[in-house]
TrEMBL record:
PROSITE patterns: ABC_TM1F, ABC_TRANSPORTER_1, ABC_TRANSPORTER_2. Keywords: ATP-binding, Membrane, Nucleotide-binding, Transmembrane, Transmembrane helix. Its main location: membrane. The chain crosses the membrane at residues 30-55, 67-91, 147-164, 170-187, 251-276. This is ABC transporter ATP-binding protein. One of its GO terms (molecular function) is ATP binding. Signal peptide: none annotated. It holds the Pfam family ABC_tran. Residues 32-311 form the ABC transmembrane type-1 domain. Residues 325-349 are annotated as: Disordered. PANTHER family: ATP-BINDING CASSETTE SUB-FAMILY B MEMBER 10, MITOCHONDRIAL (PTHR43394:SF1), ATP-DEPENDENT PERMEASE MDL1, MITOCHONDRIAL (PTHR43394). It comes from Catenulispora pinistramenti.
């Protein structure tokens, strides 16, 4: 089972800092909620006192007006405690929901902005982190209210008992705190078990998602039996972790219940002995017994708060790798183009060429490339690793080993992630269509107008496709999905468009039509285009082609000229 990178060694905020941030962001509503919860507990602790006074008044032969006043006092206490408890519940629930949403949004933004953030984890694992762990972390807001209000309830109980009898009050004050400290002492074990449970559940979910995606190939080669064996093993580990967490949870709950029972019985027994010996009267006895039964509520609140804090710390430890380092968080985008809302307005940077000068990285040796507005450049790489390296450099995810890759005089890898995405759009070969309709699938956060979408679909020969899409566009063929991807890229109108094998699933006639329209449209848009492909229809329409042979050597010439190179001809004609 894989482990997370230690927070302090990876520039990641420690779990306690994550929890402090959650509490700090919701400080105002949580403070009001804590006050309301404390009022609820204080009034609930005073109810036995009010009942005891009413009983004492009745036993002493008080008149009807005193009895009615006592009843009104009890009702008033119930009204106040209900109001305080309702307000606290609402504010706590709202704060937890908002913080869970904030954590999910921040973590998702980090994964989308920084590909390295999600490295080493499957989609299923991160789905578990972004759902259950984000919610568990946000529960720290409610946990604090439970602990604080429970402590207030115990304090009021002790004060009432001290008023009735010094030894009863001191006994409560000396007995309950050590029991609460004992509950807190076993919380690290619970925290560890909860973290293991979340991790095991994430791995099981990841495997399930992978098996569902690979169901057809598994059936084809007869691998369903092995797949079932692996899934059973993963779910068995998940069950073991779940049972261990449940056992640890039960221990904490049991300690709280046993502690409550012990304190209740002890206080009631002491009150009975004192009443028998005449140290307290009937009204005081009723108050003490009612107080003894109430003690369980604040103790249970504190025990539950400890459980929530343990779960919150475990969740924070798992989500923390997606909430740092700080430079990627808490720095608001500088403009609409970097924020991802609205179409990126032309800037001076958009008019600057992308220049790769004497770049060497991985299998690439001394590559030089200039992408002026309107230019169209083809790239043919014999080694797939060379194509992947070039994509990484153009997207800013990798810096060259030697040489430079610049936009407007600034290194590509140093430009803010969102700002670069809106100027250099790198479209990988693997296609993902997001949305339930074709219109949604074409939206890239630039508020593309419908006319431009229709034009892009026509350019990609995709105007006749159905508007309604199933999940990930599964109702479209491979060629149709590629045409939608091309249309999406054209509708975005980036300053630089980088495409990786965009037309491999198209028939020869459609490939030639789309290739011609694609290059012509990009020139009309005034944007530079780089196409990593072996498609002759695309390469023949480019201004020039970079051929990267098996040794990483780069040849720069027109497609027709490069056809005299045996290696190039073999690559594009196979």
């Amino acid at each position: 089972m894989t482990e997370f990178v230690p927070a302090r060694t990876a520039g990641i905020p420690p779990p306690r800092e994550v929890l402090r941030t959650v509490l700090r962001r919701q400080a105002r509503p949580l403070t009001i909620a804590a006050v309301g919860s404390c009022v609820h507990q204080a009034c609930e602790a005073l109810v036995p006192l009010a009942i005891g006074l009413a009983v004492q008044n009745a036993v002493a032969g008080g008149d009807l007006s005193d009895a009615l006043l006592a009843v009104a006092g009890v009702l008033a206490l119930f009204a106040v405690l209900a109001t305080g408890g309702g307000l606290a519940f609402y504010l706590n629930a709202r704060s937890v929901s908002r913080e869970a949403h904030r954590l999910r949004s921040d973590a998702t933004a980090r994964i989308l902005a920084d590909p390295a953030a999600g490295a080493g984890r499957t989609a299923g694992e991160w789905a578990s982190v972004l759902t259950s762990d984000a919610t568990a972390t946000a529960q720290a807001a409610r946990a604090r209210s439970n602990v604080v209000s429970g402590a207030v309830g115990l304090a009021v109980t002790a004060a009432v008992l001290l008023r009735i009898d010094l030894w009863l009050g001191l006994g409560t004050l000396l007995t309950v705190p050590p029991l609460i400290l004992g509950i807190d002492a076993i919380s690290p074990r619970l925290e560890a078990r909860l973290r293991e449970r979340s991790q095991a559940a994430g791995l099981a979910a990841a495997l399930a998602a992978e098996l569902v995606r690979a169901l057809a190939p598994l059936r084809a080669f007869g691998g369903t039996g092995e797949a079932l064996r692996r899934y059973r093993a993963a779910t068995a580990r998940c069950l073991d972790a779940d049972l261990a967490a449940a056992s640890a949870n039960a221990v904490v709950a049991a300690v709280g219940l046993v502690s409550t029972a012990f304190v209740t019985v002890a206080i009631a027994a002491a009150a009975g002995w004192m009443a028998f010996n005449g140290r307290i009267d009937v009204g005081q006895f009723v108050t003490v017994v009612a107080m003894a039964s109430f003690v369980g509520d604040p103790v249970s609140r504190i025990a539950f708060g400890v459980q929530q804090l343990s779960a919150a710390r475990a969740g924070a430890a798992r989500i923390a790798p997606l909430l740092g380092p700080p430079p990627l968080l808490g720095t608001p985008p500088r403009d609409d183009a970097e924020r991802g809302h609205g179409h990126a307005a032309p800037t001076g940077l958009d008019q600057e060429p992308v220049i790769l000068e004497n770049v060497s990285a991985g299998p690439i040796r001394a590559l030089t490339l200039r992408l002026d507005p309107g230019a169209a450049v083809g790239v043919v790489a014999v080694d797939p690793a060379a194509a992947a390296t070039l994509l990484a450099i153009l997207s800013g995810r990798q810096a060259p080993s030697t040489g430079s890759a610049r936009l407007g005089g600034r290194p590509l890898h140093a430009i803010a992630r969102h700002g670069l995405d809106f100027r250099i759009l790198v479209v990988p070969h693997q296609i993902h269509l997001l949305g339930r309709t074709l219109t949604e699938a074409l939206q890239t956060g630039r508020d593309t107008d419908p006319a431009r979408m229709r034009a892009a679909l026509a350019t990609a020969s995709a105007a006749d496709l159905p508007e309604q899409l199933t999940e990930a566009g599964a109702n479209l063929s491979g060629g149709q999905r590629q045409r939608v991807a091309v249309a999406r890229a054209l509708a975005a109108e980036p300053a630089v468009l980088v495409l990786s094998d965009p037309l491999t699933a198209l028939d020869a006639v459609t490939e030639d039509q789309v290739a011609a329209r694609l290059i012509a449209t990009r020139r009309a848009q005034g944007g530079a285009t780089v196409v990593l492909t072996t498609s002759p229809p695309l390469l023949s329409r480019c201004d020039h082609v970079l051929y990267i042979d098996a040794q990483g050597t780069v040849l720069d010439a027109a497609h027709a000229e490069l056809m005299s190179e045996p290696g190039y001809a073999a690559a594009v004609l196979r």
